[in-house]
Specification:
Shape: globular
Low-confidence stretches: none
Number of helices: 9
Strand order of the largest sheet: 2-1-3-4
Mean pLDDT: 91
Distance between the termini: 49 Å
Length: 235
């Protein structure tokens, strides 16, 4: 990640494995913005909570972008702020209708895919897991047809845009979750356009993704903690 030095007017508070944080990283790097990365330790909740309480007292979660001392929160909001503050290499279209469409599809990704994937990690019932996975797969199918209708390399055209950045969840993150839970959400034969999109996206961001091995270890621990929390205690 760029900009690890001190004294930058732009800082990003995040955690390495967060797909929401990585979205902001790509937006900053797409714009060529120099920034300071501030890693919040997942294993140190006390200090993490203190930092977030100061910068994001309402939601207390990452990412938080700090620009000239002022915090901006929520990944899609941050990306729009970045796009409006630094005009080069636009992330959203200039046309108002196309911007509205981009916002709609980015929101669709969050509601129908990202939130479902996060929910899956908290489930222990296999039947419920399969039903949730089926809904996420259906949403990917809708996006596959939308990309086909556009006839472009990315949802943003020939370069990545807001929808592409939001949809990044279907790369390493989703693959790790599928492996940890032993479920199938994405099938390249059923979703050929999104399969090609994944390849194009990973190449575009120069493989700047959290390591899949690290995600696997983290998600396994997280899911096992959920299983343990619902298991009947022994007397």
């Amino acid at each position: 990640m760029a900009g690890h030095g001190n004294g930058k007017e732009v800082k990003l508070l995040g955690i390495w494995f967060s797909p929401y944080v990585r979205r902001v990283v790509w937006a900053l790097e797409l714009k060529g913005i120099d920034y300071e990365w501030v890693e919040l330790s997942f294993r140190d909740p006390k200090n993490r909570s203190r930092s977030l309480l100061e910068q994001n007292p309402v939601l207390k979660r990452v990412p938080v972008l700090i620009h000239r001392g002022r915090p901006v929160v929520e990944s899609l909001v941050i990306i729009e702020y970045i796009d409006e503050t630094w005009r080069n290499n636009p992330v959203l279209p200039s046309d108002p209708y196309e911007r509205a469409l981009a916002r709609f599809w980015a929101s669709f990704v969050d509601q129908k895919i990202t939130e479902v994937l996060i929910k899956l990690l908290s489930l222990t019932d296999k039947t419920q897991m399969k039903e949730e996975a089926k809904q996420a797969s259906k949403a990917i199918g809708i996006l596959d047809r939308e990309l086909k209708a556009r006839g472009k390399k990315f949802f943003g055209g020939e370069t990545i845009g807001l929808v592409d950045i939001a949809l990044s969840i279907v790369t390493n993150w989703m693959e790790a979750i599928e492996e940890v839970l032993d479920i199938c959400i994405f099938d390249s034969r059923t979703h050929p356009l999104i399969a090609q999109w994944k390849t194009n996206f990973v190449e575009f961001v120069r493989h700047n993704l959290p390591p899949k091995g690290g995600l696997l270890r983290f998600y396994r621990r997280y899911h096992q903690s959920k299983i343990a929390s619902v298991a009947p205690s022994r007397l």
